[in-house]
Amino acid sequence: MQFVVSSKLFSKFRITTYTATAGLGFAICMLIGNATSQDSTGGNLPYIDLNPDVRNYLSLLNDTIGTQEWYAYGTGIDPQQTGGQPDFGWRQDYKIPDVADPNYLKVAGLILSNAGFRPTYYVVLPGSLRKGYGRPLEWTAEPGVDDPVTTGWYASNGDLLVGHGLQHVSFKHLAALASSEPATEQTLAAQFMMWSMGVMVGGTLRTDYYQTALHSSREVGRVFDFAVDCAKCAWFDDDNAITILDWAKNTVLPSVTSDGIGHIYYPGDQGYHLDPNLGEVPYWYPWQDGLMIAGMNRLGSFLVALFPDGQGDIAYLGAALGAKARFMASKLASVITDDGKCPKAIGLNGNISWSPDDEAVGFGAWCYRALRIANANSKADAVFAKLKDNSDYWPWFVEPDGSWNPNLNMGGK
């Protein structure tokens, strides 16, 4: 059964667009006025691609693409590959200067450029599919990076920029800018981009590939986490918000196993990688479940707060997501060591594959919030103690209520 609403979903958090008199704000308002999002009807192509407009407007920043500074305010050149996900975790509020700071405009521009130059919009055509699901328009083949079918977009300086797959949707710098106060033209631009990313997420979830099964537990965590960011920082079209809720109810919740595993990889499945320490057996990635748990808990709490009387399908869904997240968190906590190390993979035959100690602790950081949700506080504290001095891990140290670990002295939202 699909959700039906008669008014704007998440309307309590809908941003009122203010009037911008010039520059980026004017350009973005024009884009919003001209934008549409729709699925295929009567043979029309189901796509939205506003990135060319953003790229053209931000053309003065082309010389920053690919620089260390540019990557510091967004994601790596290929966020779908290992090592290209530096903005995972919580919002990057602490990286945004105050509006009065002379560095604000530069940082805001770098954030918008990193997000805006990504090919992120979906198109569902048999000739432009990558492993069965829709990919963006105007991507070009790059066999060295991915499958040789529409995989990347070349910037004017020759750099290949790759967009986000659903399990890598991460726009935490963008969400931080979209929520920053007081509002500026750059804030409005970030809100617009968050909305357009919501169009991409909703459209992708409506493809056949995502209707019947999960393909990783990480994609659940990323989509749900993004959904709350988008609802709080910007706005959602109803069709895309409802698509996410339907996916949560009809695909995500039924996929969790009876013993609390979010997703199992079976030999022959897409995404299955033979682990030499396990052999060819079904297995699960605990650290990816950690991300799934955090996203489910956050979306569940958000939906419950929207309907505090607890009545209605959406309120019930929020409660179900929260309960399932707590159940999964207990399972996850049981496989984390007392010193905060998380296995790379666990076979359903009981065998465990371990990475080197430093990587095992890094996987533990992915599980920090889930450990808190499970009340496995000593294990969470062990992870924090080992990584608290490394700012790369700061965005992971978020408590169940959304606040950062107070010992980081970073605040939280």
Account of the protein in words:
The chain is mainly α and 413 residues long. It is 41% helix and 4% strand. It contains 13 helices and seven strands. The chain has helices at 23-34, 51-57, 68-71, 104-116, 172-179, 185-205, 217-233, 238-255, 286-306, 313-333, 357-366, 368-373, 377-387, and strands spanning 129-130, 133-134, 153-154, 160-161, 283-284, 345-347, 352-353. The strands form three sheets. A three-stranded antiparallel beta sheet has the order 5-6-7. The protein is globular. Mean pLDDT is 77; it is low at 1-9, 11-50 and 123-151.
Q: N-to-C SSE series?
A: HHHHEEEEHHHHEHHEEHHH
Instruction: Find the count of extended strands (DSSP E, 2+ residues).
Output: 7
Low-confidence stretches: 1-9, 11-50, 123-151
Estimated structural class: mainly alpha
Give the overall average pLDDT: 77
Using the CA coordinates, give the radius of gyration: 21 Å
Count of separate DSSP helical elements: 13
Biggest sheet character: 3 strands, antiparallel
For the termini, the CA-CA separation is 33 Å
Strand fraction equals: under 5%
- How helical, in percent, are the residues? 40-55%
| Strand line-up across the major sheet | 5-6-7
Please tell me what the overall shape is. globular
Topology overview:
Elements: H1 23-34, H2 51-57, H3 68-71, H4 104-116, E1 129-130, E2 133-134, E3 153-154, E4 160-161, H5 172-179, H6 185-205, H7 217-233, H8 238-255, E5 283-284, H9 286-306, H10 313-333, E6 345-347, E7 352-353, H11 357-366, H12 368-373, H13 377-387
Antiparallel strand pairs: 1-2, 3-4, 5-6, 6-7
Helix pairs in contact: 1-6, 4-6, 5-6, 5-7, 6-7, 6-8, 7-8, 7-9, 8-10, 9-10, 9-11, 11-13
